[in-house]
Amino acid sequence: MVTTTERFLTDNGIPANFSSVVANGLADHFALHWGGQVINFPKDHRRELTRLEIEIYERFQGDNYDALAREYDMTMSGIRKLIKRIKAKLASGPQSDLFE
Question: Which residues of 40-68 are buried (b: 16+ CB within 10 A; e: fewer)?
Fold first, then answer.
C-alpha cells in the first residue's frame, strides 16, 4: 500500500519525500483503525457507471428518452429505468449521496 500510494502521489506532482511521509502515515492510520479487517474495494466499473448515470440524468429533459437511448446505446426501457432509479435515490435522501 505504501509503494502504491507513493507512486500515485509522485505521478501527480507531489515531491518524493512528501509522498513517502504521506504514504507511510496513511498506512499507519489504516492499520490503527482497520487492522485485522478484510476490506473489499469495488472495481472501478461501478464508479464509472455512476458517472455515466449522472451524465444521462443531467441530460434528461423529461421527454427525450429515445434520444438518450440512441446516444448511449441503450434501450428506451433501460433509460426509463435508470431515470426512475436516480429519481428514487434523490427523493430518498440528500443529493450528496448520489454524487459521492
Answer: eeeeeeeeeeeeebeebbeebeeeebeeb
